[in-house]
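Database export, one record per block. Field names are fixed; values are copied verbatim from the stored entry.
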Amino acid sequence: MTNSESTTSHRVLDQRWDGRSTFTVEEAGCEILGLSKCSAYAAANSGELPAIRVGRRWIVPRHALERMLSG
């Protein structure tokens, strides 16, 4: 198995998200998980979506989202 094969066989997120270490709640909730905007923010607020509040923004760390999707 080559290095590229081992990387792609364990891929959790689509290749278009490569290079990103954080996502907005709309990206993580709506685009990746398929939730509505309202449901995505409700999930972030309740802790169901692993998000961190920074001022008025919600940030979803990639490692936390991948861990949630893998487990």
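Remark 1: Residues 4-8 have pLDDT under 50 and may be disordered.
Remark 2: DSSP finds four helices and three strands in the chain.
End of record.
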